[in-house]
Amino acid sequence: MSVLLRLAVLFAALVLSATSQALTQPDATSYGYPLANPFEATIATTPPALRPALPDDEDIDQADHSLRLRPEREFSLQKNFWPVSRLTYRLARQDGPAPLVFLIAGTGAHYASSLNEYLKKLLYGAGFHVVQLSSPTSYDFMAAASRHATPGISSEDADDLYRVMQAVRARHPHLQVTDYHLAGYSLGALHAAFVSRLDESRRAFNFKRVLMLNPPVNLYTSTSNLDRLVQTRVSGIDDSTTFYQVVMAKLTRYFREKGYIDLSEALLYDFQQSKEQLSDEQMAMLIGSVFRFSAADIVFTSDLLNRRGLITPPNYPITESTRLEPFFRRALQCDFDCYIREQLLPMWRVQTNGNSLMQMVDQISLYALEDYLRRSGKILVMHNADDIILGPGDLGFLRRALGERLILYPRGGHCGNLNYRVNANDMLEFLRG
Amino acid sequence: MANKPFLPALLLAVTANLAWADHITDPDGFTRPLEHLKFNPGLDQREFERASFDALNVYDPWERWNRRVYHFNYRFDEWVFLPMVRGYRYVTPRPVRNGVSNFFANLGDVPNLVNSLLQLKGRRSMEITCRLLFNTTFGVLGLWDPASRMGLPKHSEDFGQTLGFYGVPEGPYLMLPLLGPSNLRDTAGLVTDYAVEFGVNYLDVAQTSSEHPEITVLKAVDKRHVTNFRYGQTNSPFEYEKIRYVYTESRKLQIAD
User: Fold this and answer.
1) Among all residues of chain B, which has the CA nearest to that of A236?
2) Domains in chain B: boundaries
3) Which of A114, A213, A417, B203 qualifies as a cystine partner to A185, CB 3.0-4.6 A?
4) DSSP result, B211-234
5) Cβ contacts (< 8 Å) between B16 and chain A: which residues?
6) What was the ipTM of the complex prediction?
């Protein structure tokens, strides 16, 4: 029986790899991305020599603008949060008429996150207008643009995003736009899919192409994976040395060896080539920690705006001089799972008369869009076989739903190969049509 | 030159391939990266919390004042400083801006040299001396930076680092109006470096700028122009705490280097 099963699996693998060959899918040997370790790829991204040529920041006609979308927040938000009472976005404009791409950032990320900046440069260089948007899970978006300020219900987040996009469009009436495209990475890619479906009925943009880069398939799998990353068994920590101290000590030794401090874009890559390099467990812990800080921001902001009293006591006076550290400490102890249980799921149950966690997960993940993904020829997914936010079966789902419109790269970790030349070419080729 | 990083990349690819060769691949192509990690069996490790709490322990008795200054700086940046920088970028062509940056950076090599000498760092002092010589002569009073092209990297040494080098503790964290994060030790260092710059009066700039305040303004605008930091870029309600941690750790790095 087990032999039969194995044979069946082998056969399936052969068939799949055969079909994928036919679709000009990159394979491990011809792809050429050098980092085989997904954690390293996620942290260090692509070695500078293998990145595409990008225009200089100064050669881009770009500016930040801000929108007042929820005027009541100017009064309900406490004084300390004045910077986020308006939603800021960045627009890079071409001289004449051009297609426009909306870029949606990943979990907790800002419109000017490094990946959004990279994608902007790439697309601007190829002749697109680009609008960079913060993720609905980011602090500024939650405060300034979100109706419920409890991100995670993908259709609601997409609705918020859609309003933002319409407001952006109305703000620049003289911008000459030939076509609208949509792109997002990580969680932003999931949002892009939901926004695109919303656009099918609202028809404000009629998106021509939708590019999804490394999306989560099952959102709960992804958050569980990220929560688990800080549970790796890391060497070097003891009663007197914390994990951060271990990393800082390594960095200190690395710079001392090098002779001077140089914070160039090759730093992380060079560091991983040195003898101070981090182990897989340490890298996983580092990635997990970054996401835990995003989780803490979401937990704190959502609780504060909705006055739930889990982190900040309701009506606690916060002025510009108030210490926020006690609340920060409380929020740091709440991971994504805790946020889902304590804030997201209860709200969803009230709003929809909903039932179990699994029902919610079904509605907020890509499963909810399976038919739409199958039907809609304008959507392309680029993903990696070793992405750390995926679980078993997720790629199978994407293959079934998208068929030829899934480009699966053999390596790259989570978004580590987006700035690899081959990927950059594939993106441009798709968006140019 | 462009091919140089290929070799380590190739070596890495080969060694990494060996390490990552024997893993399971699902029929759909998924390689299950998390299954390679060693996890804590109970998944109840609190190391993230412990490390983060420890990172929050920065001596900050003047926090209420510091936070007000942080907000003041944020507003000043948005309403005055950054608009000035944008105007500056708009009216000056790039070579002029680079010249201005190089010019002030060259002047800054004087306190760099003094502090490097005070820390008895021989090799580094030699490098900074060469930088000063080349940049002031071939670089036409520092408007151009041939030294960096000749492989003499820029070092940054200030009196705060010198004090730290000899074991002076940081003292309370201090947010300075307009200048940003600091601590008591580094503030004392800042004042000393300023006095040194004025005392040495290299290229007669310190003397002239006391008569022409516009030079000081230009220096400030240039400083902001070359500083990439933007308020709000951490995009977190806890930006104050994050800046405090990063500042403290980066100073430790600079002192150790």
Assistant:
1) B47
2) 60-256
3) A213
4) H-HHHHHHHHHHHHHH----TTTT
5) 35-37, 40
6) 0.88
B23 touches chain A (CB under 8 A): no
Chain B, residues 198-257, CB within 8 A of chain A, namely: 230-233, 235-238, 240-241, 249, 252-254, 256-257
Q: How many CB pairs under 8 A join A and B?
A: 208
* Alpha-carbon gap, residue A278 to A284, rounded angstroms: 10
- Indicate the helix (H) or strand (E) that contains A334: none
Q: Would you call B64 an interface residue with chain A, using a CB distance cutoff of 8 Å?
A: yes
Residue of A50, A60, A233 to mutate when probing chain B, most B C-beta within 10 A: A233
Residue B29 near chain A (CB below 8 Å): yes
Mutate to test the interface with A, among B18, B23, B47, B251 (most CBs of A within 10 A): B47
From CA A419, how far away is CA A371, in angstroms rounded?
31
Closest-CA residue to A286 (of A189, A384, A151, A388)? A388
Residue A145 to residue A132: CA distance in whole angstroms:
15
Answer whether A325 sits within 8 Å of B12, measured CB to CB: no
- Among residues B105, B33, B220, B4, the alpha carbon closest in space to that of A281 is found at B33
| B17 reaches A (C-beta below 8 A) | yes
Please identify which residue in the block is written with the tokens 């899934």.
A406
CATH top-level class of A32-219+365-432: alpha beta
Give B141→chain A minimum CA distance, Å: 25
Residue whose structure tokens are 């495209």: A181
* A379-384, strands of its sheet edge to edge: A62-67, A87-92, A129-133, A98-104, A177-185, A209-213, A379-384, A406-409
Q: Kindly identify which residue of chain A lies nearest to residue B254, measuring between CA atoms.
A: A261
H-type alpha helices, A172-319: 187-202, 219-229, 243-258, 267-273, 280-306
CB distance B28–A396 less than 8 Å? yes
Contact between residue A137 and residue A187 where contact means Cβ atoms under 8 Å apart: yes
Q: How far, CA to CA in Å, does B37 sit from each of A37, A233, A247, A404, B63?
A: 12, 8, 18, 32, 41
Where are the alpha helices (H) located in B20-46, listed in sequence order?
Answer: none
- Pure H helices in A1-149: 2-22, 28-31, 38-44, 73-76, 114-125, 139-144
Q: How far is A84 from chain B (nearest CA, A)?
A: 9
Residue B5 distance to chain A (closest CA, Å)? 7
Residues 6 or more apart whose CB falls under 8 angstroms from that of B185 comprise B160, B163, B164, B168, B169, B170, B171
Record: contact A280-B36, CB cut-off 8 A: yes
What are the strands, taking DSSP E only, across A93-137? 98-104, 129-133
Q: Where are the domains of chain A?
A: 32-219+365-432, 226-352
Identity of the residue in B56, B65, B253 whose CB atom sits nearest the CB atom of A255: B253
Distance of alpha carbon A197 from its chain centroid, rounded? 19
